[in-house]
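Teaching note: in complex prediction, the entire set of molecules is handled at once rather than each chain in isolation. The prompt given to students was simply: 'Predict the structure of this complex.' The entities are:
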Amino acid sequence: MEKAEKKPIIIVENLTAGFGGNILFENVSFEIYKGEVFVILGGSGCGKSTLMKQMIGLYEPYSGSVVINGIDITTADEKQLKKVRMGIGVCFQSSGLFGSMTLAENVALPLTEYTDLSTEAIQLIVKMKLGMVQLAGYENHLPAELSGGMKKRAGLARAMALDPAVLFFDEPSAGLDPITAAELDSLIKTINEGMRTTMVIVTHELQSIFNVAHRVIMLDKSAKGIIAGGDPRWLKDHSTDPRVIDFFNRKVSEQKGKGP
Amino acid sequence: MDPRKTYTIKVQGEKGSEVTLSLSGRIATENLSLFVSEADVILKETSPKKLFVDLSNVEYLDSAGALGLLQLEDRAKAKSTPFQFVNVTDEAERIMGLINRKALTTKSLVSDKRSSNLIEWVGESSLKIFNDFVSVITFLGDLLAALVHSLFHPSSIRWEDVNFYMKRAGVEGLPIVGLISFLLGLIIAFMSSLQLKQFGANIYVASLVSVAMVSELGPIMTAIIVAGRSGSAFAAEIGTMKVNEEVDALITMGFDPIQFLAIPKVLAAMASVPILTLYSDLLGIGGGLVVGVLGLDLTVYTYIQETMNVISITSIVKSLIKSMVFAVLISGIGCQRGFQVRGGAEAVGASTTSAVVAGIFLIIVTDSAFAIIFTYI
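The expected output is the structure of the full assembly:
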């Protein structure tokens, strides 16, 4: 795997967040470098999805900062926030496609709103993006007519519409069979290698982590923060933290047992 | 200069000979249209024998920019002009490699669903109305069967839910029903007084308001308000439950969704709508009383006396029977529209709208039927 450029595109510093006064994690700090596939992992309820939502400005943290492309989104005004959001794409767990719009309209939406391209040019870009996620020919389908894996890929095509510098994925493999999940992983890898898009992925699927991740951080519910970080293969073989060993080894054996 | 033009195209070579286009700057999504049209013009003007596109000075290229370059290649090849990219950077090669050129010309697997002709539209709409009619009748049948079952098995009714929906549909509806009925009584009295004054028949304002409110306007206005407030809420609630597979969960647990979800709502509506109707009648008469006393020099006693003379127990009972039937229709159609939801958020919205529209339609049609029935009995 090619090494990512060592220039931070996202800097998270001393982030503390939770719900209704209950702290999920505190003083979390890390950096994400340009072009890398960064995975946030951890067991259920450790706050990894919440951390991602803090990073895209959907939730407000109790304290700390999230700097994306030089702009601190925790203190940014609407104009700056819009600028940041135009430079990121998000693939939601349930794909987040608009049910009343066809796939073409879903993908075209950011292009029609944020560019003054002609209709023909937009249609061409839509066809290209759908082709990139292997959905050529599905322009006029409604999201309800697609399978779970196709919806995720369509969500990815829409997230990529403006060629963002950073793509966020919330549990991309959730609800997918192992083969479809592996296909999605390979798509994520292809796009990362082809366009050098920085990828931030929230998952607990070990197979996905080993397939795509350059670097991971592991959150833990009881520690309320990061308990490990680095190359997932290195962590699996060398970590001495029992929680990390347990997470990697137990799950790996479970997954091997299941098999596709 | 166009602010979108963040690139330059330098043309080297004579017209009709080998031409090199040296590109530099940023070729990206925002200037795709501009780039393609400019490249087209150059291609036309130079008519090259062979075209080279030099990418060595391209600073930034995104997927749409790469698409623009591939479009240029396609257009040159369409004119049988030999084409070649030179000094292709790794980045440009990677991005161009991501584009599946076959996908750009792949035809859509299905045609655009919204572009149908008039005949198709009429056919589809007729079929939809017929199917809708069948499903409403089927549902009302199921609902009546469940109501009869509940009558013989009162313990099967979820009384807590009935209580909750009575509060929602009844108690919380009191302010709006009261306000509208009061103003309605006021308006009828005021408008009729303008005419009746001329004949010195001021006292008949009281009769007019009370008859209008008790026999027609009270039940209809209350039913319409309940359809707007509660019929829509029932449809939205059950529709969202359908989307979230909660209704499926009920079925798999062995519960009858009509008994579980619809019956408490229908019973609550049947109990609260007649009470709201009586309340509406009273407030309407109250509105008339205000005009009568303040504008027509009638005493409170005279006004009430005249009202009592024209309103009979039968007319009140008829009004209550009507409102109870309206209650079944409004709540029933609300639940039926909710159960009909397939898909997502849009379908829930459509079911809510449809619950209100169908509810009001049924109220008016049933009211007309009652007018005829009550004339003959």
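Point out the following to students. The CA atoms of residues 52 and 202 of chain A lie 7 Å apart. The first strand of chain A starts at residue 8 and ends at 19.
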